[in-house]
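Format notes (please read before filing issues)

Several people have asked whether sequences and structure tokens are stored in separate files. They are not. Every record keeps both together, in the order shown below: the sequence lines, then the token lines. Line labels are part of the format and must not be stripped during preprocessing.
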Amino acid sequence: MISGKFAITIHILTLLSKFPEDYLSSEFIAGSMNLHPVLVRKEIANLKKNNIVESKEGKNGGTKLLKSASNISLDSIFKMTFDTVTLGFSKNEPNPDCPVGKKINENLVNLYENINEKISLQLSGISLEEFSNKF
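Then the structure lines:
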């Protein structure tokens, strides 16, 4: 299901791209989003796991980009956040004797795959730098 993780991750990375030489604290980043710093640190951990950011602890610690914003596509960010977009399925198992029920989930899977291909195609053409330049 779709969540706000992508928006949070894009916000973090856009903010980091605006201060490429600085280590930004999770408190500073969280303040920009009006979120609890723990939620920001959770997304930063995912970005560290994917080698997009580095962090250091201590008084002057924080997080900064490891790569140039021009070398990070929004598609790569999306794929770090979600495996795929799904709009969900019915909680009840459809009736296999119904002409719609027996094929609905198969057709939804195909629809969601098509949506994901289009999302990936659109996002792959936009770099974090290009997105960040709007601010």
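For reference, the curators noted about this record: The two ends are 29 Å apart (CA to CA). The CA atoms of residues 1 and 86 lie 5 Å apart.
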